[in-house]
Write a structure and sequence with these properties.
Length: 405
């Protein structure tokens, strides 16, 4: 008598379905993992790389502001392209543009090259964001959307646990310049393989019908959410690009140690995702959104107050808990978006949020030149305002988010 497989095919299929890993969603998860691993080898060290190339603190802040502006400027066009040509074709297009950006980083060794490269690199995460939401919205229904966003978020963050540590070791052994270039070329190779894989999978997928162009309006409930979200993302944006500078130059720890802190932050977010998503399926989404915003507020305070590496590790663990309500928030947005214009609605939401916070890093840089503490304390104040706003003005999710406000 022959023994059966360790995991029967029917059980494996049921597991994939329970995790929302079906069809295009599974391919999307693979793309998020591979692109993310390559980029995370070096992306978080770009502020220190700019300092190595001779950039002043304010210019580092401008780099962060440019990233935020691209997030804002790309979101709505990305949604319009997604609605027009379909999620699969859009994701392939954005992947190719990002690969071109990796090439610019690798081949143009200058401050100008960093700024030119980021314009292209942001295509996959920013132009592609509405496509990610739209694909999950198309292929998953009801509570499965929270599960789908949870799994995608976990898959996206696993590389952040590993890659920054690897990148920090490369920089420590090869030096800033050679270590960063090694990361650039690794990201090029991984992106090329992933694009070929996505093309093979998407070739047999269904093609969405063309959607007539036109403007969309955010539902009232999303207007309330984005107002609170803006304040909280300002809280995040003021100190974000300076965290690596704070850890390495102010507190005196190595690049490899900073990579460990990033891994702690990401591992904490991964561990918190699954139980939080399971609870969010049964409880009010609002509670998890407000809890998320509270951790955004606590993070800059904890980082500023930390003096030892152990204290910084605890602070970055608090930072990891900032993601505890993200699957619920994203499902809230998809549930509230009309199916025929989901890409544009998601794009408009993130365009509003992105342009509203675009100056955060530059403001953080100006505050940093006065005294670093002002960057952290101003961030905490904005986060507190956003948290209170969400608690007061968001409706309870006993009332469906796509119901009239």
């Amino acid at each position: 008598m022959t023994s059966g497989p360790a995991v029967p095919p029917g059980r494996a299929t049921a597991l994939r379905r329970s995790l929302g890993l079906e069809g295009g969603v599974a391919a999307l998860a693979a793309g998020l993992f591979v692109f993310g691993f390559g980029q995370e080898l070096w992306f978080r060290y770009v502020p220190e790389y700019l300092r190595f190339l001779g950039a002043a603190p304010f210019l580092i802040g401008v780099f962060g502001t440019l990233k935020d502006l691209l997030d804002a400027a790309y979101a709505y066009p990305g949604g319009a392209i997604t609605d027009r040509i379909g999620t699969r074709a859009a994701l392939l297009l954005f992947g190719v543009v990002t690969l071109a950006g990796f090439l610019v980083f690798a081949l143009w060794r200058s401050i100008a090259g960093v700024f030119a490269g980021i314009v292209l690199v942001m295509a996959w995460p920013s132009l592609g964001l509405p496509a990610t939401f739209a694909m999950i919205g198309e292929e998953l229904r009801g509570a499965k959307r929270i599960v789908g966003f949870t799994v995608q978020a976990v898959v996206k963050r696993i590389p952040i646990v590993i890659a920054p540590v690897v990148g920090g070791v490369l920089i420590g052994r090869l030096g800033m310049l050679r270590g960063m270039r090694a990361g650039f070329f690794a990201s090029i190779a991984l992106a090329a393989v992933m694009i070929l894989g996505l093309a093979a999978v998407f070739r047999n997928g269904r093609t969405a019908p063309a959607v007539p162009p036109g403007a969309v309006r955010l539902p009232p409930v999303l207007r309330r959410l984005v107002a609170a979200d803006v304040l909280v993302r300002l809280c995040e944006g003021l100190p974000d690009v300076f965290l690596v500078v704070w850890v390495i130059e102010v507190r005196g720890f190595s690049a490899a140690r900073f990579g460990v802190l990033v891994s702690i932050l990401t591992a904490t977010s991964i561990v918190s995702y699954v139980p939080a998503a399971a609870l969010a399926e049964r409880a009010e989404k609002k509670r998890f959104i407000v809890l998320t915003y509270a951790f955004f507020t606590l993070f800059p305070v904890a980082v500023f107050a930390a003096r030892t590496f152990a204290a910084l590790a605890a602070a970055f663990a608090i930072g990891g808990l900032r993601e505890i309500g993200e699957p619920a928030r994203k499902a809230f947005i998809v549930d509230s978006s009309p199916a025929h214009a989901r890409g544009r609605t998601v794009g408009k939401y993130y365009t509003i949020r992105g342009f509203s916070v675009a100056g955060a890093a530059a403001i953080g840089g100006l505050l940093w030149t006065i005294a670093p503490r002002w960057t952290f304390l101003a961030a905490a104040g904005l986060g507190a305002a956003g948290t209170v706003g969400a608690a007061v003005f968001l409706p309870r999710s006993g009332k469906r988010p796509d119901s009239p406000a």
